[in-house]
Design a protein that fits this description.
Layout: H1 11-20, H2 28-36, H3 53-66, H4 73-76, E1 83-85, E2 88-96, E3 107-115, E4 125-130, H5 138-143, H6 152-157, E5 158-163, H7 200-221, H8 230-244, E6 249-254, H9 256-267, E7 272-278, H10 287-312, H11 322-338, E8 341-342, E9 349-350, H12 352-361, H13 366-381, H14 386-394, H15 416-427, H16 434-448, H17 450-458, E10 484-490, H18 496-505, E11 510-517, H19 527-539
Parallel strand pairs: 4-5, 4-6, 6-7, 7-10, 10-11
Antiparallel strand pairs: 1-2, 2-3, 3-5, 8-9
């Protein structure tokens, strides 16, 4: 959900690409979900549990009390064994797989990494972060330069701590949705699935793809799928807080990380010191509201690209006027749907799904991504889809300037696309009846064209998924100290209205508005945002109502 240096692609850009690498038709539903890049956020806005305020507050209290159960004491009492890993320190946190039965011996081992402050005399404690997803690796982010998203002030007062949530990347076990080795690969035998399936045959094919994806996940990871939701991940966050030695949690969450932080706040309001929730998700929205609002937001983001390309990119824009850019994009959608574009030096072709993935993936950081997108659209206008395919397929391996990203050491398999589907489906109740998706699909397409259709189609995998305890709800967190919510007015992945809604739901919620484009603000916007966040984290200074940057 958030990129960690100014010229590095956003985390969810990399998440999408992992889904695109899943082989065979069983991966197509994940490709559809990833292509829209609502990953983490738009499609995953889901909820804690009880629908009534009293029940939610009561459960939060029960959760805090339950954390002192004797069976949980070995987990809460563990001390992290830190070892050197380059310039950082690494450790492993053990958490129960099932918090209802922590004594059964089944656990997750979660990688943890920290960048220790160079000024221990000013140290307040640990600042834990989650970069988004669901499915982004906090360990990978910090090892990959993520500390640069935190200012000198923050790094002076805190050890910066990242971790892999249960099921993610280096977690053991980790979610695996690759088809079984003996599964037939029908990808070469079928035409590409359209972004907007209209006919009965196209919809049957989409449904079959989604069901194959769900079946592949059950085959590989069936035991852990019921236990990788945000409710349990938030409880892991409290175990981490205790293992770090902090009485209260200081936390920054980007995008999906805001939802994880919100669920933590509901369960453990008395254990919060400071929460920064940047690029907020609204837990009150159900799956259909998320799909519709997400489609509208990405459609608007592409319009914003057309309107602001000249200001951000200059003469490299793919057309001379905003309307010219819009016409080019519309023409490319129509053309690639009928006749996929050639890719020089390859027998592959750029179809409408890859075009859509390249476009939506480029809406997160305009300052880094709009120039490569403009070059790719210019090439596509001339008949070469190679640069768009590169954006769609290899964005996770590129810096914002297009250079290859070096890796210091081998990383765990990137399963972020699979985790995205697994957590979103588990957290957010979805209907089983396919007709509910087709009805919403038609409405979303009418409202937002391919952006709306893709959001709904991505949810189709959830139809046969294991269900969790969470439901859409308004936040209940009695006793929670003031929380800082940051919203960007031109954010496509987490629309600004979600930040307004979440801030209003939180007790003492404070909204800081960034008047700008792109996804999230802290670490990529301006000093106004940075200073407000830092003084809140360090000094707990409140943001005044109506604050805007």
């Amino acid at each position: 959900m958030q990129r960690f240096t100014r010229n590095r692609q956003p985390a969810e850009h990399r998440e999408q690409r992992s889904a695109a690498r899943i082989p065979g038709t069983a991966g197509r539903a994940l490709q559809q979900r990833a292509a829209l890049a609502l990953a983490v956020t738009v499609l995953g806005a889901v909820p804690l549990a009880a629908c009534t305020p009293g029940a939610t507050a009561a459960r939060a209290t029960m959760t805090v009390e339950a954390s002192s159960r004797p069976a949980l004491q070995p987990f809460y009492g563990q001390k992290l064994d830190w070892t050197a890993c380059g310039d950082l320190r690494c450790a492993t946190l053990t958490v129960p797989m099932d918090y209802a039965h922590p004594e059964n011996g089944k656990t997750f081992a979660l990688p943890v990494v920290k960048a220790a402050t160079a000024m221990p005399d000013q140290r307040i404690g640990n600042l834990v972060f989650n970069p988004g997803g669901p499915g982004a690796s906090g360990v990978d982010q910090l090892k990959d330069g993520g500390v640069d998203s935190f200012t000198k002030a923050a790094r002076a007062h805190f050890d910066i701590v990242g971790f892999d949530p249960r099921g993610v990347a280096g977690s053991k076990p980790a979610v695996d949705c690759t088809p079984p080795d003996d599964a037939p690969d029908q990808a070469g035998d079928e035409a590409p699935q359209p972004l907007y399936p209209r006919t009965d045959a196209e919809r049957r094919a989409a449904l079959a793809d989604a069901d194959r994806t769900a079946a592949a996940c059950r085959a590989r990871s069936g035991e852990i799928l019921p236990h990788i939701g945000t409710l349990d991940a938030a409880r892991d966050l409290d175990v981490l807080r205790a293992a770090l030695g902090d009485d209260k949690l200081s936390y920054v969450g980007w995008s999906y990380g805001t939802y994880l932080g919100t669920i933590y706040a509901e369960q453990f309001p008395q254990r919060v010191r400071a929460l920064v929730l940047d690029g907020a998700m609204d837990p009150a929205k159900d799956w259909s509201e998320e799909a519709l609002s997400g489609g509208r937001a990405f459609r608007k983001a592409v319009d914003d690209y057309a309107d602001n390309c000249a200001k951000v990119v200059g003469p490299a824009c793919p057309a001379a006027t905003p309307d010219g850019i819009r016409t080019l994009i519309a023409d490319l959608y129509a053309k690639t749907a009928r006749h996929p574009l050639r890719i020089k030096g390859s027998d592959r072709r750029l179809d409408e799904n890859a075009l859509h993935g390249a476009l939506t993936a480029s809406m997160y950081t305009p300052e880094a991504q709009w120039a490569p997108l403009s070059e790719a659209l210019t090439a596509a206008r001339k008949g070469d889809g190679g640069k768009l395919a590169d954006l769609a397929d290899h964005g996770q391996d590129l810096q914002g300037d297009g250079s290859a990203e070096a890796t210091a050491d081998p990383a765990p398999r990137d399963n972020s696309g699979e985790v995205l589907t697994a957590v979103n489906c588990l957290d957010n109740p979805h209907p089983e009846d396919p007709q509910a998706y087709w009805q919403l699909l038609d409405r979303a397409h009418q409202e937002s064209g391919p952006f709306g259709a893709a959001t709904v189609l991505a949810d189709l995998t959830c139809r046969t998924w294991p269900t969790g305890p969470l439901k859409p709800h308004r936040v209940q967190a009695d006793g929670l100290p003031p929380v800082l919510v940051v919203g960007t007015t031109g954010d496509a992945a987490t629309p600004y209205q979600d930040a307004r809604s979440l801030a209003a739901q939180l007790p003492g919620g404070m909204l800081l508005t960034y008047q700008g484009l792109g996804h999230t603000a802290y670490g990529r916007s301006n000093a106004c945002v940075t200073d407000a966040v830092d003084v809140y984290l360090v000094d707990l200074k409140l943001v005044q109502p109506g604050a805007s940057c």
